[in-house]
Amino acid sequence: MRELKVKVKTAKGRKISSTRWLARQLNDPYVKEAKQKGYRSRSAFKLIEIDNKFDVFKAGQKILDLGCSPGGWCQVAAERVNSSPSNVLVHGIDMKDCDPISGVNIQNLDFLNQESFDQFTQNIEEKFDVILSDMAPNAIGHKQTDNLKIIALVEAAIFFTLENLQVGGTFVAKVLDAGVGSEMQNLLKKRFKRVVNFKPNSSRASSSEKYLVAKQLKV
Ligand SMILES: C[S@@+](CC[C@H](N)C(=O)[O-])C[C@H]1O[C@@H](n2cnc3c(N)ncnc32)[C@H](O)[C@@H]1O
What we know:
The chain has 219 residues and is of the alpha/beta class. Helix content is 37%, strand content 21%.
């Protein structure tokens, strides 16, 4: 049976863009499934697709999730590596608040604030097996500026990853259409055995995002 599409009327005081957002949320199958399965974001399905295709996670691995709020990726990662309160394997950071998740160490901090981020990494003794970044800056609506902001975040994530990922480890990051630029792409290709760009089905066709997956960091 075909599901009925929910129509949202423009209400007094609600902007047209908010009405469109609400209609899209109410009619999005991934939003529905996320609710049913208890995931905090529809983004959880993007990471599930990435893991199913590229074999990112293995039980017992240590994971860092940059830009983790509201927590969908941390939930998926914790399930897939068997993280638990007695053996916390997943660490997430975000400048926005993120409600606690069982088996995940969540820290409220800005990745670009070197001092507070250094304090966080000081307490983490071993390197990570997987570093994820779904970080996205608050969009201001000016395409070029938004693009530059996300590129700056991805570049910072790449440099951090090259220092803090185990040899053999995996890096996954959200990028926009233009990718990371040829200089960064070449650097990644030199340092990882395999580098691909992937657009999960659960990523909205209207969004210019895709995901960079870099596997097997070389010595
Ligand atoms: C698309 S959301 C992440 C969704 C998440 N993967 C999930 O499944 O719930 C992007 C997040 O990046 C965070 N972010 C952006 N810039 C950041 C920064 N400099 N430091 C930490 N977090 C940042 C935002 O606060 C936002 O919560």
